[in-house]
Design goal:
The protein has 294 residues and is α/β, with parallel strands linked by helices. 38% of the residues lie in helices and 17% in strands. Helix 2 packs across helix 3 and helix 7 packs across helix 11.
């Protein structure tokens, strides 16, 4: 393990602050500073960039981000023990680290941003990783406040994010990610790299926001994908009935075979279906029905 700085080793930080990993918080700590530096580098040059990190724990990735040039790191941490440990890093990099106590699912990052380039780089707590990603993919307006996300997930979740039509992992998450970002698995991380080691391999995923995604109402796209993949073994002419409208005209309008199944439809097909649904529900005779389906 190479030293990034002259701060104490992470194992010592963990011992002094009683930072035993808590399963309830989805904690698995990365102690290899070579690996945390590799994750930081996956975010591209960080000079002049504000980085948002979620669940920094004892601060291994935090230190790597600061040592590799991040202008500022905003670290959101729910565990009060870790917040105390981060104070040591904050003292070592004065004015460059802001530790925010709280739940990443509810904390508002906006007041801490200053309008400059921002990026999200994090070893996400497994128990909230998908919820966080969906929240960021739902950012409005779009393009979002971040220019890139470099995030660690369980390998199974990473495969769902980058899946393409025809893959067994292709589903709602892949559609949302593919619609608004270009996603790529950068590298895998073995369980042995963590303390405690998880039972699964992890993967670092890079997501770059698309400047101009296909025009679509996000909430409608979410409804369409929920209906389609909620009954993924059924043909679309059946699964889309849960939308509350006749699927046949929708499918005909966008040229999709009613006998198709959800995993066969590309992202642009789901966007077209969402737009067709919006068009149908804007018709006066469908106003009442549309209200019931919102």
């Amino acid at each position: 393990m190479s030293a990034l700085d002259d701060l104490p080793p992470l194992r010592e930080v963990i011992r002094r602050h009683g930072l035993s990993a808590r399963k309830s918080l989805g904690q698995n700590f990365l102690l290899d500073l070579n690996l945390t530096a590799r994750i930081a580098r996956a975010g591209g040059p960080l000079d002049g960039v504000t980085v948002v990190e979620i669940g920094p724990g004892p601060g291994g990735l935090t230190r790597a981000l600061l040592a590799t040039g991040a202008r500022r790191v905003i670290a959101v941490e729910r565990d009060s023990r870790a917040v105390a440990a981060l104070a040591e890093i904050e003292a070592h990099y004065p004015g460059r680290l802001t530790a925010i106590p709280g739940d990443a699912l509810t904390v508002d990052i906006a007041p801490h941003l200053d309008g400059g380039p921002a990026r999200i780089v994090a070893n996400l707590p497994y128990n909230i990783s998908t919820a966080l990603l969906v929240r960021w993919l739902g950012t409005e307006p779009w393009p979002p406040w971040f220019d890139m996300m470099v995030l660690m997930f369980q390998r199974e979740v990473a495969e769902r994010i980058v899946a393409t039509p025809g893959d067994k992992q292709f589903g709602r998450l892949a559609v949302l990610a593919g619609w608004r970002t270009e996603a790529k698995i950068m590298f895998d991380v073995a369980p042995a790299a963590f303390v405690p080691p998880p039972k699964v391999t992890s993967s670092v995923v890079r997501l770059i926001p698309r400047a101009s995604p296909l025009p679509c109402t996000r909430t409608t796209l979410e409804r369409v994908t929920a209906a389609a993949f909620g009954q993924r073994r059924k043909m679309l002419r059946q699964s889309l009935r849960s939308l509350g409208v006749d699927p046949a005209p929708l499918l005909a309008a966008v040229g999709i075979d009613p006998a198709s199944r959800a995993e066969e439809i590309p992202v642009e097909g789901f966007v077209a279906l969402a737009n067709a649904l919006d068009a149908v529900q804007r018709l006066p005779e469908n106003a009442a029905e549309a209200g019931r389906c919102s």
